Amino acid sequence: MIQQTKEVETRPASGAAAGFMDPGRFFAALLGLVVVLVLLGLGFVYLRDSKGANIFNAVVAIIWGVGGVAALYYTVNALIESLPNKWRGRLLPFLFVGPGVAMLFWVLTIPTLRTLYQSFFNNDSTSFVGFNNYIATFTDRGMLESFRNNLLWLFVGTGFCVVFGLLIAVLADRSKFENIAKALIFMPMAISFVGASVIWKFMYAYAPSDQPQIGLQNAILTGFGLEPQSWLTLQPWNNLFLIVVQVWMATGFAMVLFSAAIKGVPTDLIEAARVDGATEIQSFFAITIPYIQGTIITVTTTTAIGTLKIFDVVWVMTGGQYGTSVVGTEFYRQFFANRNFGYGAAIAIVLFIAISPVLIYNLRQLRKQEGF
Amino acid sequence: MALVQGRAAGTRRSKIINGVLVNGILALICILWTVPTIGLLVSSFRPRADVVTNGWWNVLPHQEYVTVNQIQLTPGLPLDQPIQVEGQTLTDDQLRAGFKLPDGRKVVWANRRSRTVDVQNQQWTAKTNFTLNNYDNVLIGQEYTTTDAAGNTKTEKGENMSNAFISSLTVAIPATIIPILIAAFAAYAFAWMRFPGRKTLFAMVVGLLVIPAQVALIPLLTDFSALGITGTYLSLWLVHTGFGLCLAIYLLYNYISQLPREILESAFIDGASPFTIFIRLILPLSVPALASFAIFQFMWVWNDYLNALIFLGTAPDTQVVTIKLAQMLGSRGQDWHLLTAGAFVSMVLPLIVFFSLQRYFVRGMMAGSVKG
């Protein structure tokens, strides 16, 4: 979608007095700002020291966060509006973007650079080790196993999500029960990965063959007279059984996006193809697929990023044991279990590099938009 | 004429076949997708003895051998010799495995030592014992006694999930509301104001959308321990505010930049300042976009596991539901009666939000599809 950014001229707020500085207003606003800052500081100290889980603290936090930000905007705005016109126009945009951008710098941009820096240092960040952490990342057997598994997640997980999502979207589009079907498929999106892990661990539950099976998968196997399997320790297939959880959760997302895209395909195009004697399948591949190409790219990249960052499912279901570790769990293990900060940082940067093609693609798309 | 009619009938028939095929496949997929959740929900209402001895699908009517009669054999009857039961000569092994009589009944040891034999008949049954005890145990966490299949009683300590539930609310509400205001101000500036660095800063926002959280975790944790706020709600609010801001700014920018230019211009001509326009015009007009983001962010925060694990930790009085549930899965992996109830407690709020506000959630998610 092409965005157009329109500039609105910033005109003086109040007729004749504008253009000059108003010292009275200036100092009143300055005083207000100081009061707000002090209150924010007090709120910070209070919230830092209160650890109990209660609704009262949540309310204080909302007042502190939302009210504090609003008061900050209000007083700084009053301060800027008391300034001469020239300064007002220059400073005002920075008041508006300032807090958001500052927060992003603190929480994301600068930490990324610091992690990059840290990845060249040893486990407690005291001595420079060059590329050693990266060399270790690509030679360590545990890491190599995680890379293999992550590639499996990337291709199998993403592939199934996209194919199933598209299939369901097409079927639902022709069905009278579209809304119910879509809600049911989409519902797992609302559940946490941890909740989904419990659901699927229950599905995979294993009992020795002489005992009753309470896991559905094994009950079906034994119903056919086969031996029950301990699915989550069955190497290397257990990776696929974990990927099933991701497919179960993320297919709904793919389906919703595909469904919206398919509805956007002009019916006269499909109609014309039908008149020319094309079969349903031919017109699907010749018209629908090319038409929704953009959505396919979006869904594929989003799902792919999700599989690269996967952590919760593996960590909760197997703890990364039995040959199921992925980059996300290795990062956590190196950083928290082994306290090896440099190595953990290097793994995080490798993950970042793996995702960066999508980042570059997004920025390219942004540049195509008008106004940027 | 007859030919045309025949063709029409043919297409009508193929249309019906198509319809059945489409709905059939769709129904099959929907069942596959829903069965795991249904299994969880059903199990959470079953008594412990049922959950561990038979699969949850046994709540459906099915054929099963039910004891209709018990035969007392002569006490002390030698077991290494053929045994006479119901006119059949059987061995000990046959009685242990259960022996089918010619009339369809089955005889099996009820108690081998006291020499009692069960005579069973195949009947339609359904195991429809339901209870709210599991929820009671999971939520309130009092000591409770259970009776297992063999008749042994056991006293266990329940889980205090209601505390985790409050904790999750304490995290999620401020972490949803605080970023909205900051992001709305920034989005307004990006959309309607010109200032140096605008393009670069917005490119940063878009770039940060896909960044894996892992690259920022280590430095943030360092900062938070310097500020003395690790393990407090404050740290998690800050993290979720920062991580949620990119999506919020991007989403709100797309919406706010599409607002009709005329409305803003006429407000300027009336002498309103940018701040007033923002409060009086932009915010009220952006309510749909704000709601979409709020729901997306709420689900995101509620379901988050990694950040909660790292910043808030597993202390019993502050842990959130995802942490609590993962911990239960680790410590009581076989107590499926509690795990299923716990999982449902963690899912109930997102599911309510999902089914009641689905439209907003889908919109937020589609806009957020650029986020990894």
Q: Assign the CATH superfamily of the largest domain in chain A.
A: MetI-like
Large-scale geometry of chain A: globular
User: What is the typical, i.e. mean, pLDDT of chain A?
Assistant: 82
Q: Portion of residues in helices of chain A?
A: over 70%
In terms of DSSP E residues, the strand content of chain A is: under 5%
Helix and strand element order of chain B: HHEEEHEEEHEEHHHHHHHHHHH
Helix segment count of chain A? 15
Biggest beta sheet attributes of chain B: 4 strands, antiparallel
Number of helices of chain B: 15
Cα Rg of chain B: 32 Å
How much of the sequence lies in strands of chain B comes to 5-15%
Biggest interface, and residues per chain? A-B, 133 and 136 residues
Give the helix level of chain B as a range of percent.
Answer: 55-70%
Rounded Rg of chain A: 28 Å
DSSP E strands of chain B, number:
8
Largest sheet of chain A, if any?
none
| Uncertain residue segments of chain B | none
For this structure, the quaternary state is heterodimer
Please identify the structural class of chain B as seen in this structure.
alpha+beta
Order of helices and strands of chain A: HHHHHHHHHHHHHHH
**What is the general shape of chain B?**
elongated
Brief summary:
Chain A has 372 residues and is mainly alpha-helical. Chain A has 15 helices and no strands. Chain A starts with 22 loop residues before the first helix and ends with a helix.
